[in-house]
Amino acid sequence: MQQDANDALSNLDHAFAVAMEHQRTLMERTIAFLQGESLGFFKMRLDRARGAMEQMGDCRDMAGLLTVQTAWVGDLVQDYAAQGQRASELWQQGAERLRAEMERQAGSARQAAQTMMDETAGSADAAAEAAHEAVYGAGQEAAADFAEVQEALAPDLQPSNGYNDQLH
Predict the structure, then answer these.
(1) Burial class of residue 31 (count of CB atoms within 10 Å of its CB; 0-12, 13-18, 19+)
(2) What does the pLDDT average to over 135-150?
(3) What is the C-alpha to C-alpha distance for residues 137 and 22, in angstroms, rounded to an integer?
(4) 21: in domain
(5) Eight-state DSSP code of residue 162
(6) CA–CA–CA angle 19, 22, 27 (5° rounding)
(7) pLDDT digits (tens, 9 = 90+) for 57-108
(8) Cβ 48 vs Cβ 78: under 8 Å
(9) 87-94: long-range contacts (C-beta < 8 A, 24 or more apart)?
């Protein structure tokens, strides 16, 4: 019975360890993905800034500089808005995946807990049955012993020619 309970706890412990490992892996992948996204975005922005600087070098008057600068600011606003939209979508997808993973892990933990409860209940039922059988067996042995004692004392318990005979 103790071994079954230990096995059930070990199974539950294993389920939690697996869940924690999944969480660690998910976090590592998320961080790597976000680093890649950020680096890609900043590389794009640096390339656009470099392109704007090259265009500014070719400008011969203030109107030309203002046109390049305005285009660069417009691209900057557009890029950040697009990146914000993309990040929002990615976070939404990530949250949905996380929710699904948490539900899956909760189901696994629930299943492990149910298995542990079933095994523990089975062990408890087996222990109760064993206790019942032991008590019943002891009762049967006591009854048999009592019967043997009663048989051994039977001649002594027969009415004698004494007082009991006089009553009849």
Answers:
(1) exposed
(2) 66
(3) 52
(4) yes
(5) T
(6) 125
(7) 999 999 999 999 999 999 999 999 999 898 888 888 878 887 887 787 777 7
(8) no
(9) 87/37, 90/33, 90/37, 94/30
Q: CA angle, corner 12, sides to 8 and 18, nearest 5? A: 140
Structure tokens at 161: 């020619």
Is 154 inside any structural domain? no
Determine the structural domain holding residue 76 and report its residue range.
Answer: 2-124
Is residue 23 within 8 Å of 108, Cβ to Cβ? no
Does the global pTM surpass 0.70? Answer: no
Residues, the chain: 168
Section 9-19 average pLDDT: 73
Q: How far apart are CA 59 and CA 62, in angstroms?
A: 8
Q: Six-digit token pair at 40?
A: 């890609």
Cα–Cα distance list, 156 to 47, 150, 159 (Å) = 118, 10, 8
Amino acid at 104: R
Count of domains for the chain? 1
> Is 58 a member of any domain?
yes
Predicted confidence (pLDDT) at residue 40 exceeds the cutoff of 70: yes
Q: Which residue's structure tokens are 């656009």?
A: 48
Q: Is residue 166 part of a domain?
A: no
